[in-house]
Amino acid sequence: MADFFNVISPPEAIDLMSKNLSVVGHEVINTEDSFGRILSVQIFSQEESPSFDRSSMDGYSVKASDTYGASDALPAYLELAGEVPMGSAPELTLSPGEAAIAYTGGMLASNADAVVMVEHTKISPSGLLEVYRPVAAGENVIVAGEDFRKGDPVVAEGHLIKHAELGALMSLGTTTVNVYRRPNIAVISSGDELVEPGTQLAGGKIRDVNLYSIGALVENLGASATSFPRIPDEYDKLFEVANKAAQISDMVIFTAGSSVSSRDLTAKVINDMGNPGVLVHGLSVKPGKPTILGMSDGKPIIGLPGNPVSAITIFRAVVDPLIRLISGAKETPLDKVIEAVVDTDLPSSSGRTDYVRVRLRYDQGTVRAVPVHGKSNLISTLLSSDGYVEIDADSSGIYQGTTIEINLD
After folding, report:
1. How far is residue 134's CA from residue 67's CA, in Å, rounded to a whole number?
2. Which one-letter DSSP state was computed for residue 119?
3. Three-class SS of residue 286?
4. SS3 assignment, position 173
């Protein structure tokens, strides 16, 4: 069993745990249902896209050479030979001095090599097309294969499928994809002091927060959360539920009570669930030092602090990346980080990673981070903040005016 006083940093803990983790299995699903899923097999284009030369503008398909020298003062005059309707192949071939109506995304007339924007033309009283700007060959034309060539990589393994990826796959006729299975994360709440949120408080009881907030954070990662009813601080009951949870899930998260005895009980259960048991018993962080990380027969088992603020902070800093690892994700979402200028000095203790809650404000085009002061166990600090700044263990603090990265909630 790991010594509680032999604490390590969050990056060290993540690295230690990652050596024991494996990615969940994968499955084949319809591409239309793949939004928010992580690709398990790289996708390559099976065809050229677009499959034909097409106009990128509304206008007229022409032979570029017929427009050379055109200007406002001396336009080029072309005969209108007809049009190429949307969704149709061209049925006309341009002779010298001819043009055909073209539509955005539509095909060009046969042997046309450019498109003149409609804004640069006018129909003369005699019915001729007046062209006021010359075009070069290929101008305003998307050529076949310009987007994707056959065999080009489209979406990499481990990549999150968002709206752009979904659209690209559909445009290439990819109707099924291999994705990693959504991990099932068991969330167990324990503690003699905890009661249902609808319970009238009395005698030192507190309403359970972590079961719901941690479950929500799990779901927000695209995983499935299975919540177990809160359990009193009794070894037999906790061990029974923990083993049941491990059988049906890919990770087990304990949200234990705040007392030392609760933490010791969680550590004992993790050790007794299977090898190797507890790997980390305490992190060099504030808040969140009483964090427990372990493995049971290949499954990660996490013991979060009972303090709701600490539990959420450690989830974001440590558990979040572990869930991404077993999910097969190869990327960290950039939309979860923003740069801001710190409003005041942020002191810190060297040798310990500090997580400081901040709220963001905009000041003449600059994003500023304002520390949210208050005791670490006050839930109101979560509501008053937009995220947190991580002060590295090697640092003694951050000076006012420094540009820092904010981890958004």
Report:
1. 5
2. G
3. strand
4. coil
Residue-wise pLDDT for 294-343, tens only, equals 999 899 999 998 888 889 999 999 999 999 999 999 877 766 888 999 99
Determine the Cα–Cα distance for residues 245 and 174; give it in Å rounded to an integer. Answer: 37
- Split into its structural domains, the chain has a count of 4
Q: Residue 109 and residue 113: Cα distance in Å, rounded? A: 9
- Tokens encoding 172: 């290439």
- The whole model's pTM is what? 0.82
Is the same domain home to 76 and 171?
A: no
Q: Is the peptide bond before 287 cis (omega within 30 degrees of 0)?
A: yes
Helix (H) / strand (E) containing 351: none
Tokens coding 188? 């167990």
Show the CA angle centred on residue 11, arms to residues 10 and 16, nearest 5°.
95
The CATH code of the domain that includes 172 is 3.90.105.10
The answer to whether 67 and 121 have CB atoms below 8 angstroms apart is no
Element of type H or E holding 154 = strand 153-155
CA distance 80 to 111: 15
Same domain, 37 and 168: yes
Q: Which DSSP state fits 243?
A: H
User: What are φ and ψ of residue 286, in 5° steps?
Assistant: -145, 125
On whether the CB atoms of residues 185 and 323 are closer than 8 A, the answer is yes
